[in-house]
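hi! just following up on the protien thing from before. the input was this:
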Amino acid sequence: MLAELRGLGPVAGVYGNMDEPALRESLPKERVVEVEGARVGLVHIPGPAAGREARLVARFPGCAAVVYGHTHVPQVEFVGGVWILNPGSPTERRRAPVHTMLVLEVAGVEIRPELLTLP
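and the predicted 3d structure came back as:
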């Protein structure tokens, strides 16, 4: 799947807890990517819900956004000047009420997230 995505364009990702060993070896646990001057932190497991947003902001200093997964529950929240984002899941909604995905529009250092609900 990763190879297929890379066939569409540049891909920067992190591994998740359900990924097979070969994929885990090819991706980092967390990373920071830069898009048009905006820094975005990526991590799969964000840790406990209590204090999560402040912890993610501190974990990725200088980032305009932090994107995490694991919970499958979407989150689009602006905390301390940083977007805290979880796209939810387009395939396995688990505890989320609907399937979702996230689109980030980046213009310079400005980030505009849009959460999309899927049928």
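The radius of gyration is 14 Å.
Strands lie at 30-35, 38-43, 65-67, 75-79, 82-86, 99-107, 110-118.
cheers
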